[in-house]
Design goal:
Helices cover 51% and strands 13% of the residues. It is α/β, with parallel strands linked by helices. It has two domains: 178 residues, no CATH class; 215 residues, Rossmann fold. The strands form three sheets. Strands 8-9-10-6-11-12 form a six-stranded mixed sheet, with helices on both faces. Strand 8, helix 13 and strand 9 form a beta-alpha-beta unit. Helix 2 crosses helix 3 and helix 14 packs across helix 15. The longest helix is centred in the middle third of the chain and has 56 residues. 36% of the residues are buried.
Amino acid sequence: MKAFLMHRDRDFDPQHRLPRNKAALIQDLELTTLFQTMAQDDKFLSGVVEQAVLSSLEDLDDIRYRQEVLKDCLNHAAVIREIYSIPIEFIKNKQRHWMSIFTRYPSAILSGANTMLEMFVGLLKRLRSIGDEHAADFESEGFRRFFAMIQLELDDDYFVVVENKVQELKFRRGVLLSAELGKGNEGANYVLRKPNRSNASWIKRTFGKKPPVYSFTLHPRDEYGAQALGELRDRGINQVANAVAQAADHIESFLNILRIELAFYIGCLNLSEQLSQIGEPISFPLPVASSERKLSFTGLYDVSLALTMKQKVVGNDMNADNKNLVIITGANQGGKSTFLRSTGLAQLMMQCGMFVPAKSFCANVCAGLFTHYKREEDATMTSGKFDEELGRMSNIVDAIAPNATVLFNESFSATNEREGSEIARQIVRALLERHIKVFFVTHLYKLARGFYNTDQEDAIFLRAQRQTDGGRTFKIIEGEPLQTSYGEDLYLRIFGTDN
């Protein structure tokens, strides 16, 4: 049995190798806040969520498939949580009652596996009952196939057979074996036999004449005799024990992968509920092919900031369709870095099949998301700040591919403006020539003005809005680069207007 709730044709791999720039993405986009909200202090959920968000999908059908499953989850949250409780209950029961299925003794293997099968029957019946009651309410391809599989493979006949076999394999009437004499008159070819069912009444079975048999009785203190009989019994049930253990492992594997795949959607439900309490909107994005250049949105906000402040934050609108370069300038502390982070977060969330923090969002998928943010001074003094920036840029160049996206935040500002602007200009030009989308937040006026003056058609220039009294609206609007970042506003706000 397969869940196929994360992918149409394969299981979700929680050990899939994550991108080399994982640490930079988590730090620069403040993903820890997002992961903690989705996981709700559950370490297992946190691991699955991190793996899913950072394992970006690039195929449009894969993204849409996961989106449709998530829509069903949001529409039927209580049902999804009920299904998720089934593998959780199995894990708790397994931890509470140790199953001796990892021993070398066939009798212990059989006993442990049989106990697990007995537990599975109850859990699978619950799963089947949920499917019978709610399957018609789900619309996504993933859940329609999931419930169809449950109803097909977990039908009434299946439970009758399993329950009968579980009772038979307890061997309450003993074990019937056959064997042959081998070399040296040692036993060989041990076979477990199915006992003959008697049609006689209990009176005849109790008082009727029994057929003659050869038997012997062990003395209660005959430990070696009991051990010998135990070894004979183990030889006979060895194959059956292995078969039952494999059957139990198969069902356990199904419940484990069901837990893993539903964990991602449980994380999305947790996030959706938190944002709903704050009053922030969410929407399902429209992804387009990586070869196109699409980026338009309304009401896009920084989800990590909203979760941290636990209140609504300012959203932004933009249309950057057919643009490869987005340069953002303007007033200090005007929301430029927050805006940049919101675009990166939305891109990641879209490409893992999630909803996005916006009223509407459309973007092309990218072949990798990279961030190059300014860092604090190296405390070890092993290299200068500018050298460290260039080193990180070199690592990005080694890993990047066409149709990727790079987010620069105040990069190459550790040197003078002339040198920093020239280095940044050459790097941006090289990236654009390789069909890589670039976002650049900068206070390097020479850099921004240089691109603006070239009338580059595939570039859009944004600016942090500033009110006439120096107030910040935290809105990002279209506008040409200005030579000032209005640092005086901050000075006056901190120290006042008194000379």
